[in-house]
Amino acid sequence: MNMSPPSPFSAGQAPTQVAFDRREMAVILGLYGRMVAAGEWRDYGISMLSDMAVFSVFRRTAEHPLYRIEKRPRLRNRQGMYAVVGMDGQVLKRGQDLTSVLRVLERKLIRVVRPD
Length: 116
Description:
Low-confidence stretches: none
Largest sheet: 5 strands, antiparallel
Distance between the termini: 84 Å
Organism: Ruegeria pomeroyi (strain ATCC 700808 / DSM 15171 / DSS-3) (Silicibacter pomeroyi)
Strand order of the largest sheet: 1-2-3-4-5
InterPro entries: DUF2794 (IPR021252)
Number of helices: 2
Number of strands: 5
Helix content: 10-25%
Protein name: DUF2794 domain-containing protein
Strand content: 15-25%
Shape: globular
C-alpha cells in the first residue's frame, strides 16, 4: 500500500487565488502605459492572494506604492469589487466597473497648460 501525502490541489479543484483576467489587465496596463509616458509612474507589482488581487504602482522601485488597484470578489454584491487605494490607505474610489473606478487616476493626467 502506497501512502503518499495528499496533493495541495484536489482533483477537479483549482487553486484558491484571486487574479485579474485578461480584460482587466488590458484596462489597467493601458492606464499604466499612459502614466509612464507622462512620467508619473515608473514601476508596478502584482499580488494574487486568496481573497484579493492587487496591482500596485510606484514612482520608484524602493518605496511604498502610490496607488493600489484592488479586486475583491467577495465585495461584488456590496460596495463593488474594484477599489483604488491611495498611499495613506484611503479608498479613493470603489465600484463595480473597473474602467469607471480607474477614472479617478486618469484625472492626474489632465494638467493646466499656461502660455509662456
